[in-house]
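Notes from hallway chat w/ T.B., transcribed later so I don't forget. T.B. wanted the structure written out for a chain they're using in a teaching module, and asked if we could keep both sequence and structure tokens in one place. Agreed to drop them here.
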Amino acid sequence: MLSPLEPFIPTPDVRERYAVTVRAPAPLVYRVARDFDMQSVPLVRAIFRLRELIMGSRRGTRVAAGFLDELQALGWQCLLERPGELFVGGATCQPWLADVVFRPVPPEHFASFAEPNQVRIAWTLETHAQGPGLTQLVSETRAAATDEAARRRFRGYWRWARVGIYLIRWLLLPAIRRESERRQQEGSAPGT
């Protein structure tokens, strides 16, 4: 199956893909994932705080929000959406900076964006129905630097940051699975 990120970053410097199986229908899983407050998971919140401390960033005030709403408020652009099934987000940034600024790029310009010293990052939130009441929840991330100087800086950053990024996905996807399965159970219980 062709990745939905292929049109946006066909030759990534970094590609990570994570998946979990959820015992709930795809539309429910997508809704839960879309609205999930990622920092409601204490270890995820701790990872973000650790990055702030390591990088010396200025801690901003955070308002609890659903996953997609929060990321779009931070500057991520919706590159593609098939409601209930797929969301592709993308932005350009300099992730090695303490206070990263995500800049949206319109979908039609994302693949060709080449401003120097930037990294294009795109990610997915996908639900794939595997049968009645069974869904595969997938998140893929791709990143590509716009020039060699950015690539060197990004590789240095990625060597240590990828551990936190991996842990966040490793914690978030199962948390979304648990919440989806809980809601599925509540919805199928007699008298509900």
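Follow-up for T.B.: Residues 148-188 form the longest helix (41 residues). Might be a good example for the class.
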